[in-house]
Amino acid sequence: MKFIVWLIRVLVFVLLLVLALSNTQTATLNFLAGYMWSAPLILIGLAFFVIGLLAGLVSAMPAMLRLRMENGRLRRELRVARETPVAVEQPPLPPLI
């Protein structure tokens, strides 16, 4: 199974490499206020991929921090629960007649 997964990864990598090497022509990206950026198309695609990756990581950070804090709180509660002795209550004795 691991061999198949690695085979798929290698095939995807080779496919993306061929795609990148076939798109080396210069493209011009026009921004607001007259700014322009001329670069190979693959470089522009890579730049926007990295920007999207960073935006996704930044947007996921609050949830990750919240989950880490909750995980720490639950670990502390578990440690306290394990250290606290359990008091076994005896059922009441039946009345003597």
Automatic annotation (TrEMBL):
Statement: the UniProt record of this protein carries the keyword Cell membrane: yes
Cellular component GO terms, alphabetical: plasma membrane
Domain Lipopolysaccharide assembly protein A per the UniProt entry, residue ranges: 23-81
Keywords from the UniProt entry: Cell membrane, Membrane, Transmembrane, Transmembrane helix
InterPro entries in the record: LapA_dom (IPR010445)
Lineage of the organism: Bacteria, Pseudomonadati, Pseudomonadota, Betaproteobacteria, Burkholderiales
Organism from which the protein derives: Paraburkholderia antibiotica
The name this protein goes by in its record: LapA family protein
Pfam families registered for this protein in UniProt: LapA_dom
Residue ranges crossing the lipid bilayer per the database entry: 42-65
